[in-house]
From TrEMBL, chain A:
GO terms classed as biological process: centrosome localization; intracellular iron ion homeostasis; iron-sulfur cluster assembly; negative regulation of centrosome duplication; protein localization to cell cortex; regulation of cell growth
Organism: Otolemur garnettii
Predominant cellular place of this UniProt entry's protein: cytoplasm
One matching Pfam family: ParA
Entry function: Component of the cytosolic iron-sulfur (Fe/S) protein assembly (CIA) machinery. Required for maturation of extramitochondrial Fe-S proteins. The NUBP1-NUBP2 heterotetramer forms a Fe-S scaffold complex, mediating the de novo assembly of an Fe-S cluster and its transfer to target apoproteins. Implicated in the regulation of centrosome duplication. Negatively regulates cilium formation and structure.
SUPFAM superfamilies membership: P-loop containing nucleoside triphosphate hydrolases
Molecular functions per Gene Ontology: 4 iron, 4 sulfur cluster binding; ATP binding; ATP-dependent FeS chaperone activity; metal ion binding
Protein known as: NUBP iron-sulfur cluster assembly factor 1, cytosolic
Keywords: 4Fe-4S, ATP-binding, Cytoplasm, Iron, Iron-sulfur, Metal-binding, Nucleotide-binding
Subcellular location: Cytoplasm; Nucleus
Cellular-component GO terms for this entry: centrosome; cytosol; Golgi apparatus; nucleus
Keyword check for Cytoplasm: yes
Amino acid sequence: AIEEIKEKMKTVKHKILVLSGKGGVGKSTFSAHLAHGLAEDENTQVALLDIDICGPSIPKIMGLEGEQVHQSGSGWSPVYVEDNLGVMSVGFLLSSPDDAVIWRGPKKNGMIKQFLRDVDWGEVDYLIVDTPPGTSDEHLSVVQYLTAARIDGAVLITTPQEVSLQDVRKEINFCYKVKLPIIGVVENMSGFICPNCKKESQIFPPTTGGAAAMCQDMNVPLLGRVPLDPHIGSRSCLHGHYSCHSLFKEKPETGRRAARWLSVHKGIQEFCNLHQSKEENLMSS
Amino acid sequence: MKTVKHKILVLSGKGGVGKSTFSAHLAHGLAEDENTQVALLDIDICGPSIPKIMGLEGEQVHQSGSGWSPVYVEDNLGVMSVGFLLSSPDDAVIWRGPKKNGMIKQFLRDVDWGEVDYLIVDTPPGTSDEHLSVVQYLTAARIDGAVLITTPQEVSLQDVRKEINFCYKVKLPIIGVVENMSGFICPNCKKESQIFPPTTGGAAAMCQDMNVPLLGRVPLDPHIGGHSCPQHMAGLPRAGQAASALWLSSCFPGIQEFCNLHQSKEENLMSS
């Protein structure tokens, strides 16, 4: 399977895993925004793969609930939200979004293998893989299946409080153990500005210094800090990808929010391009 | 499990909604009565939060002739977690399903809980190995029911509906749903913001649709995130509107009533 997947992944330039030891920190939300952010350039082909088998959030966040996956001679077709942005998730294979996927590890691994081997992504510049929280079957499997295909690196998502950072340190150690390069850490839900009085509250208080302190301790880059934003929670659900689009296309009010996301995205692209240059230098020498 | 009267699972399809925080506060809440023996078992093998939340980091588990001893935070409140078995809290537990299942089996079989009134089992998010295993291993021992935790926004509710369907499939009674992070009151101007907006009616609408009880709704409370549970519980009298006060007054009594009713029904069945 590893060789088959390596062949399939030849048309995929960059592969980025979005990880967190902790649940509910915004991995899927970040993955969706990263996918949209990269796809703002129409000449960039982006693929978003959701390997959270039990709790697949990507279809809802992307406004693609109810969409179905089609099979053809060349494999499964992803669901396209834009011409240059295709999505795959177990969510598209369920008859109802409320259906529980009650599978043990081996069955989940099988699904992930199928996603990597059988989906016809075509020529892709960035494949973003959204993962469930933890350091278990899904994480081991995706790293193993992509061994020969080479993952550029992982973005780790956290929130500022210690109970999240503790799990994210474990995830950093997971990356070291499986030799997965770390692109950097994003701190979500980093403060909340009351829309009424504009006072900032630390809803998830960084009592141990937040992601900044953790990144310094563990010598990993901090890609950015993004505040809590109720609009993310609401529009992405009602209007699908509207919230992602509005974030990147609208002006002044969202300008500040968008700027934070965009600087994180830029950091990720730079890492991938540097990675690619190093590889090309190695191969030509 | 014969010495354990009531067994409650704390579940959620979704991560980060406050399962461990709720489990810890439930354990402390029940243990407020010194005559009630409480046990808290953390079966989140990859991300064991209970030691930190309970202020028990660095504690070690001891083995004796009668099995593993839980870590006691109070005389009547014992805790077990894989977190106590790690050399460092940053150590990743990178295990596939079968190894996690083995650990859960050991926790249920080898821990010497003693006489316990309430065993609370904190779980990781999802509907996979850990959840299937704990239900299967406890089949003969009879679980009273499950408390499901959610936050108000649809992306959480979607996963919690799956968890409700999981409970139906494995015939696990549902005690009810708790909606955490239900609004935030700015400490400065007191205006309420819906940080995780209930665009589809929140847990109340979901509970009505799916015919399960809503045990309570609890606001976002920065004090919860900032302090460990014992510190926070100690400050409870001043907490006022804080999350833990609401859990105590609205959610915990509902859970106790369910368990007692459950017990009465069983006793009636056995004596008839």
